[in-house]
Amino acid sequence: MRLQPRGGVGWSWLSNRGLVAIPVALIATIALADILTPQNIHLGPLLVVAPALTASFGGSRLTALIGALAVAALVAISVLRSSIFTTNHESQLIALIVICAFTVLFCRLRERHSAELRQVRSVAEAAQQVVLHPLPDRMGSLRIASAYRAATDQARIGGDLYAAVRTANGTRLLLGDVRGKGLPAIEEAALVLGAFRSAAHREPELRALRNELDAIVGWSRCQPGKDCPDTDESFITAVLVDVPDNTPVVHVLNCGHPPPIRVHDAQAILLAPQQYATPLGMGLPRAPEALVDTFAFEPGDTLVLYTDGVTEARDRAGCFYPLAERISAWPDTGTPEGLIEHLRNDIVAFCDGNFADDAAAVAVRREPVTGDPTQQPDKVGVSTLCPSIVHRPL
Fold first, then answer.
1. Mean per-residue pLDDT of the chain
2. Average pLDDT of 343-362?
């Protein structure tokens, strides 16, 4: 976690007393050297280094204080040398005051920009909480963890999306990837998430749920004021998952998305579909009928959902991140939180933190059922590739 400075972009006096000693020591050293050197040698102009250095780590107030100390030191040098009213020292003094004033002004402008940036980030984080609800750590017999990282620098949300909804008989999950980046991708992600949360709890069959999401995306794109995009240029890949409470299976409908991975006995098993459904929003009237695949999902198993931003992360040699191979090589983490944390650290090390696309991952572990799972509260998850909560940045 990165600590935010208090009062601006610069670090605070309390947390950086050691650094503050550096410009103070420079002022004392330069002043003493100037006093001890012959009259024809003038070191006073070097005092400008002190406020300039302070501006690199301090705020405007601290920079102004060091600047005032530098000006006072130059005045003291002039007094001790009995040359305060000479043209040389007057010009030095005026130049130092002007440079210190400009340095403080730039520090102030930087602080204002930093405050605006923090405000924008806080709004972005609030938008993320509204659009992309962090998943709860438990839903029925499932334990869940997630991670997210937007490709756009300093962004908190992008075109990847995930959600989980508790139903009367199980849990339903959605993980998807909007083609593209920026605000249009965020808008479509918010649309799909809202439609999923609205429809999934009514427990329509997965194919019917997929068709409803597809229809909503198509309807939204062709509303007045929007350019209805070509179907081959804009779409959303997604995977819909239904995990029943009382049956050790998982039902998966894959709409052109990277297949989930089932971790069983420390082995990563790719859950490839028999037939992919068309991605959402393509609007193909003659698309083949979607098929729902059923796979074993026993207590102790972990299901890993992810977007192509994970598997398409590249190392310096240009090789893609081999997610399934990596998971099989890891020791059993025991919890989805541990798996996500391991994944986050491993992929960042693999690609040196350089993500070309949004990346999201969700780990779902089936725990032994204790009690009646249908008595679990119906809820949509609320709680960053950020630490104690399950939503972490990649």
1. 81
2. 86
